[in-house]
Amino acid sequence: MKTLVLNAFSGISGDMFLGALCAVGLSKEALETELEKLGLHGYQLEVQEKTCSSIQGISFEVHLAQHQLKDIGILEGHHQHGRNFHEIQGIIEDSALSPTVKKNALALFTQVAEAEAVVHRQSVAEVQFHEVGALDSIIDLIGAAIGLDLLGIDQMIVNELTDGSGTIKIAHGVVPVPVPAVAQMQVGTQIPIRQRFDVKTELITPTGMAIVKCLANAYDRSVTGVLEKVGYGFGQRETGSLNALRASLYNSLLSQQDVTQEQDQVMLLATNIDDMTGEQLADVVTEMITLGAKDAWVEPILMKKGRPAYKLCILIDLQQQAAVERALFTNTSVIGVRHQLMKRTVMQRNIKQVSTRYGSVHLKALRYQGVEKVTFEHAELHELAVTHQISINEIQNNILTDIKEQDI
Ligand SMILES: O=C([S-])c1cc(C(=O)S)c[n+]([C@@H]2O[C@H](COP(=O)(O)O)[C@@H](O)[C@H]2O)c1
Ligand code: NI
């Protein structure tokens, strides 16, 4: 499972998000190819390596052609009507983008439209996007959905979401920070926004907030797994300090890090649930894995009063008990949890990267009292099988041949 963790210590905008995605491996060309499916013209992506505060990162910008600037009124010095929600919906729905990208892109625009509608006391259909309707913002929002899809991100965690303070001048006039659309998107959520009172400008734009609200699965949460890449997307505003969004890409499929003891202790948490849907339970299992559980699963059971129900089981390290129980009480209908300490016999394991005809591949080398075996990450084999159009078995056999002579 791939997890993207955003450290939004200096806020988030569409450009910062796409810059951060490029910094952890999103290809500009692949993004452009997908964006072409919208059939929009008159823009260019600029993805540039930059150094700020001695840190290397990416500056991402969408440049509009002169006629686009004229269309949205920027060359005339005033803002004409942009596109409305219905038009943008049509552009997305009529495109050849993947269903997931379309769903996320529509969710992002709906989010902004609903916030704008409340702020300006209009119906969603009446909302005329001003800055957000300009082509660069369309590219930012749809690009965000495309970027996550291209990188194969399964979940996104946003940490330290920070805005500035004071007021800024935008097309509506002078508004307070967080700007009205951002403040509105926060309503009814528990999205934690800190404020820096020494930074007198906007750090979270409506585009950035929509990305956070629609695409993040959790906030202020640590994640286990192998940290594969860290990158920075720079913001364009001068804030007086490093204006960047840090993205960290974790692979939790590789999270069973090296184990060097043959006997260890784990805790099994269990609770019976008869009042949550399958969809909700699947989310809880994902959340438990995100929190760092070794495993989490549900078993079908028949409970008291003949109720078909589920037993939710979570295998954890002892020190995770308090955090996991807290998450269960907070986010599920659970009111009690059973816990059991267990001894476990484990094979010693080492995660290694080996070079093969397919490039570098991860493997787990397992040992227990003279028994030795090697396993691969299924998702990695699957990806290679899809890329090379051959079966997973063939991929695995070829890798085994390639590593025969290597010292594992
Ligand atoms: O155009 C819209 S919808 C808009 C609304 C608001 C409100 O808070 S209401 C604010 N802004 C400002 O425009 C720029 C660009 O925003 P992006 O999200 O497109 O980066 C930014 O300063 C917003 O605060 C726009
Ligand atoms: Ni507005």
TrEMBL record:
Record keywords, A-Z: Lyase, Nickel
Keyword Nucleotidyltransferase included in the entry's annotation: no
Enumerate the catalysed reactions: Ni(II)-pyridinium-3,5-bisthiocarboxylate mononucleotide = pyridinium-3,5-bisthiocarboxylate mononucleotide + Ni(2+)
- According to the UniProt entry, what is the EC number of this protein? 4.99.1.12
Gene3D superfamilies of this UniProt entry? Transcriptional regulatory protein pf0864 domain like
Which Pfam families does the UniProt entry name for this protein?
A: Ni_insertion
The record's listing under InterPro entries reads:
Ni_insertion
What biological-process GO terms show up in the record? protein maturation
- Cite a single GO MF annotation: nickel cation binding
The UniProt family comment states: Belongs to the LarC family.
* Cited HAMAP family: LarC
- Entries under NCBIfam families matching the protein: nickel pincer cofactor biosynthesis protein LarC
Any idea what job this protein has? Involved in the biosynthesis of a nickel-pincer cofactor ((SCS)Ni(II) pincer complex). Binds Ni(2+), and functions in nickel delivery to pyridinium-3,5-bisthiocarboxylic acid mononucleotide (P2TMN), to form the mature cofactor. Is thus probably required for the activation of nickel-pincer cofactor-dependent enzymes.
Q: What is this protein called?
A: Pyridinium-3,5-bisthiocarboxylic acid mononucleotide nickel insertion protein
**Species for this entry:** Latilactobacillus graminis DSM 20719
Per UniProt, what is the name of the gene that codes for the protein in this document? larC
